[in-house]
Specification:
With 199 residues, this protein is an alpha/beta fold. It has two domains: 1-90, Rossmann fold (3-Layer(aba) Sandwich), CATH 3.40.50; 95-193, Rossmann fold (3-Layer(aba) Sandwich), CATH 3.40.50. The protein is built from six helices and seven strands; from the N terminus they run βαβαβαββαββαα. It has helices at residues 12-23, 41-49, 59-68, 112-121, 156-181, 183-191; strands at 2-7, 29-35, 53-55, 73-76, 93-97, 125-132, 142-149. The chain has a seven-stranded mixed beta sheet, with helices on both faces. Strand 1, helix 1 (12-23) and strand 2 (29-35) form a beta-alpha-beta unit.
């Protein structure tokens, strides 16, 4: 699948994608990288890696770039706005969240805010979730979740470091699952009632 990467910052997740594609452990190809911040380091990295890379603000401008590059799957890699895809990509947007959804998620929960909340609540396990994105923050079908233990003396920065390490495993794994099973598989699972719910 031709993938478009949407980012706002340093491009650490783009680094990971590039390495995984190079060593053959991640499927697909990066067709284009778009940043909504003009001087985002991720854009500089994209140019260095040889990917087409653009600065664009607003869904209309971003979506035109994705359509021009025939993107089939959108990867939100540290994109800090609610993205609105065109109808053709409405169910083809992947995001990673730095907690185990449905805990510590939704509007206002991003970055270090999540890890501070984890620390304040005193949970023993946190992690990350790769999911399809829709019009509501963190509500789309879950593809992969990975856990990490939280020790008593962990700071929010420690938690962030540990969670990012497993994000580097989870996001490529999720992309591979989507390539293997198809996009519809995950949305059908979300929509299908469980055995107990059936009349």
């Amino acid at each position: 699948m031709r993938m478009g990467v949407l980012l706002s910052g340093s491009g650490r997740t783009l680094d990971n994608f590039h390495e995984r594609l190079a060593d053959g452990t991640m499927q697909g190809e990066i067709a284009v990288v778009v940043a909504n911040v003009k001087d985002a380091l991720g854009l500089e990295k994209a140019h260095r890696y040889g990917y087409p890379a653009f600065y664009a603000q607003g869904n209309e401008a971003i979506n035109k770039i994705f359509m021009d590059h025939e993107v089939e799957l959108v990867l939100l890699a540290g994109y800090l706005k609610l993205y609105g895809p065109p109808p053709s990509l409405a169910r083809h947007v992947l995001n990673i969240h730095p907690s185990l959804i449905p805990s510590f998620c939704g509007s206002g929960f991003y970055g270090l805010r999540v890890h501070r909340a984890v620390k304040a609540r005193g949970v023993r396990v946190t992690g990350c979730t790769v999911h399809f994105a829709n019009e509501v923050y963190d509500q789309g079908p879950i593809i992969v979740q990975k856990c990490v233990a939280v020790d008593d003396d962990d700071t929010p920065d420690d938690i962030a470091h540990n969670v990012f390490a497993i994000e580097c495993e989870a996001f490529p794994q999720a992309i591979n699952r989507v390539h293997a099973l198809g996009v519809d598989y995950f949305w059908q699972r979300l929509a299908s009632p469980t055995q107990e719910e059936r009349p």
